[in-house]
Amino acid sequence: MRARTRPLSHRRRFAAGLAVALLAGVGLCLALVAATREEALAERAERKAVITLRALAELVERAAGGEPGEAVRRAVARFAATHPEVRSVRVVTFEGIRLEASSDPADRGARAAPRRLERDEKPLYDLGQKLRAAVAENRESTAAAEAILGEEIALERRPDGGFALAAPVERGGEVLGLVQMRTEPAPQGAAAPSWLPFLAAWLAPVLVFALLALALGERRAPLAAAAAALLAVALGAVAWLGLRVAAEERRETGRQLAAHAAAEAAATRQLLAELGLPEAPPLAPGRWDVDVQRRPRQLLAAAGTLDEGRLGELVRRDASRLTRAVAWIAAAALALLAFVGFGGAARVGRDLVAHRAAYVYTVPALLAMLLLVFFPFLYGLVLSFTNANIYNSNKPLAELWVGLANFGDILADWRVFERTAEGLVFDYQNFYWTLGFTTVWTVSNVLIGVSIGLALALALNTRGLRLRPLYRVLLILPWAMPNYISALIFRGMFHQQFGVVNQLRQLFGAAPLAWFDSPLTSFLALLTTNGWLSFPFMMVVSLGALQSIPADLYEAARVDGATRWQQFRSITLPSLRPALVPAVILSVIWTFNQFNVVYLVSAGEPAGATEILITQAFKIAFEQYRYGYAAAYSMLIFLILLAYGIWQNRVTKATEAIA
Amino acid sequence: MTRRGPGEVAHWPLHLFVGAMVLLTVYPILWVAAVAISGGQTPALADVPQDATAADRVRTLLPWPETVSGANFRALFTDQPFARWVLNSTIVAAATTLLGVFLASTAAYAFSRFRFPGRRAGLMSFLVAQMFPGTLMLIPLYIIIVQMLGLGSSWLGLVLVYTTTAIPLCVWMMKGYFDTIPKELEESALIDGASQATIFFRIVLPLAKPAVAVTALFSFMTGWTEFIQAATFMNKEEMYTIPVGLRFFVGGFSQQWGYFAAGSIVAALPVVVLFLFLQKFLVSGLTAGAVKG
Questions:
Q1: Average predicted confidence (pLDDT) for chain A
Q2: How many angstroms separate the Cα of B44 from the Cα of each of A207, B39, B69?
Q3: Count of CB contacts below 8 A, A vs B?
Q4: CATH 1.10.3720.10 matches B81-287
Q5: ipTM for this prediction
Q6: Which of A223, A316, A490, A494 is the most exposed place for a label (fewest CB within 10 A)?
Q7: Do A346 and A441 reside in the same domain of the chain?
């Protein structure tokens, strides 16, 4: 109706849609291209620094092979003299914790090498030990055909743009020390991206569309087709440009690395000659281009020449990655175009304006919920498909993706117990044990709560009972207490040595009991605590319902000669039902999620036997630091709660229908 | 003794049953009070000699300490950083209350008075958010609050988390109340030329005072008594809230039961008193569709 009041031009809508879609699509594509270029420059600088470092390490290793002390110092001094881009070099040997050689201006005079490392240089020594451990670890992984993860080269980009690198110094397969190298800040090569391609790719299609629209008139389908085609052409052109840039950068990286390796090899050869060291075995500059695990990246052949086949492969890989990204962007831009062009945006805009008061009132609360409830939920969902943990939490989630493996690990592990010589041995960490325990815990608590609460409510509801207000206030106290305090109080009362519960046992001649050493007694302690703090709710609800039953119902029943039991069965219970059903539903959820009692009273003792699902998820996350696994665990709990919620909704509807 | 009519039961068994239950109910509270005023740190109420007689054993069960002293309360505020924790809890709970009531009342007003696209979806999202315990979101929340926003060990981080925890229930409670306020009042104010904001702040909110009070109480209790999120986000000792601090006294290998007991009484007293005054509202609010504990 509203749409008819002001006929809107299809032409204008599609023009606006095309402009917005192009703005977003072209902008994102070009940003992607700029990021690719930036990344290529950073990678190039990093790999060149690594090649220099490896050349230096090679030189030091060869120099140390002859006569350790003086030869190494001379090699380092000559190396520093021939490499202006290197700010300082330091060589540390583990034996004697010595600074063997240094070109650092700070290491002069009293601090000149060789000398023992000072106390404040301990991080340097520790770094060396870390590299040594990584080398040993990787050797074992190689032998066991496992993934190689240890970082044998330390690489750090300093705030000023220079690098700080370190590599182990080996002789005969043994790590003797490390060589550390700092480079001068390199000039930032990346030119500011030009605005020209952006403006061209944005303006040209819009202008073309304006001309086309004049010819096409107010016909919706042709206008839509024309806009979509223009969008595709513009994005295609930008993508083609991006692919070319990426390929060019990749080739340039290859060329520069090959040239750098050749230059380093020549310099090293000359230094070896100056130092009077033989060049045998021959240098292999191609193997200096390595990743942080010191595995050759295989872009250069051993002799240092560029491997064209490998380069082509890398270019193709870049292209397919970039194409995929552009395809996603194009799909999003097309959706945007359709949204604006077919009037969706206009409708949403009209709604926003027409109901602006309502949105102004709701947006703050919804925004807060979005940021701290719905976004975390989605983030948790994504996390549950990864193997994120405390050690790799700085990596992008896409690299940690494991698909459904977490859910498989949790759900497919059916080994709840094992038969051994001593009988059944339960695995308390198993999901199904915890699920079973949580179910038993919930059911028994609700039963206890309902029966005690109902019994007390019936007693208190007796007509003419004296002291009733006093009883009521005292009995409600556990509900008023913060439950973490109640839980800690019971933890104290179940204390093995000093707790009053064990004093009571001793009064009757029994030995004091370590309540949290066996699953059953631990469960009883939990049950006592939760029973104590949860019955008042049931009591109050039942009491309220009982008091609303009209007294003449009972009068009439008595006149008809009904017994007390019959009155209870046919008047009291049915009248309690509408109040008790929601109360039980609530109390099931509360008990199922009763984190504080379990965490503070038994803390899952013994060995996680009395853990409920929610405390177990917490422990996996914050004691084992397996974030991804814990997120998957939490998602399963969500699903259980969701299923319960849906079921509960049906039951409530059914009871409402009956009532 | 009054004479009872036929079919009525004798009262003394009821008194016996209810009295026993009252004793069991009150005992833990008396116990914690006794430990608090004992001046010592053990959870025992009396020393037991090596060859204890039955009388000695009974003595250990009586919730009255052997020596009475205010030392625990004094030390709590002088030797221990408890005053600082009370300050943290007060600031967090008060800010949660202000923010929670403001956000919940505006949203609830819109949901109650306006019909707009997205209204049903918004209401449902609050209902769904309410079903799930915040503990399940701890990992993503931890990453967002601590690692992304850098709000670990800060009042603001905890206030944001508590407010969003409290909002759904508060919105539903307030909406229910707004629904009962007749629209005619606002319509006549509108005719008199009052703006939408004037109507809300000058007419509707004052009329909804009881609901605002309950919402405020609920938000305050959330901030004052929540344990596990505070324990996760507040890592520095001087930033603990009361629950984290009390657990610090008796968690792990720490056995300072005297400080814990004294602190518990300080922490629980205001909440218990408030609760006893306002329980009627809470019960009706909770059973009216709330699901979260």
A1: 85
A2: 87, 12, 15
A3: 256
A4: yes
A5: 0.88
A6: A316
A7: no
